[in-house]
Amino acid sequence: EAPYFVCVGSVRPHKNIARLLLAFASIADRLPHALVIAGLGSRDGAHTRWHAALPPAVQARVRFTGFVEDAALRALVAGADALVFPSLYEGFGLPALEAMAAGCPVLASKAGALPEVCGPAAAGYFDPHSAEDIGRALLQHAALPGPERQAISAGGRAHARSFDWDRTAALTTEVIASALRAAGELK
User: Which helix (H) or strand (E) holds 124?
Assistant: First the structure.
């Protein structure tokens, strides 16, 4: 019922969940949102320790869901105020694109492939090494008026449509053929 931010991904060091939790804890008293982290927890239980280290009032607003089935995950993302993607690096960042396709604004790290994948359709970018910058992005997004949020959602949907499997396959085939031609293996 309360607005929430969602983060999708397993709890691994490069996903930067610990810093997201620090950022959220530092601003939680200035917004009504909860934070939902959907994905497998860490094998060593680090996510449980991080959660326990949060102030009690913040603990109550942070939820680790564990694995979520696809249909439920789509609904969880579609209902979020924004997807937060704090990764230190990503090879592609499919959850960000899937969120845009669902009309969910994306707040993304400036690291790895995320700026290229999200492009100008992201609701905002932040330095993933700075809890302060992550918190700033969350607060700025929470303060956006409805029409601006709707425009971001529409822009994200349009951007996501530019990525499709047929186009990806054609571009991949083109790159492979070009490499083979350059190596003299294909005429």
Answer: strand 124-126
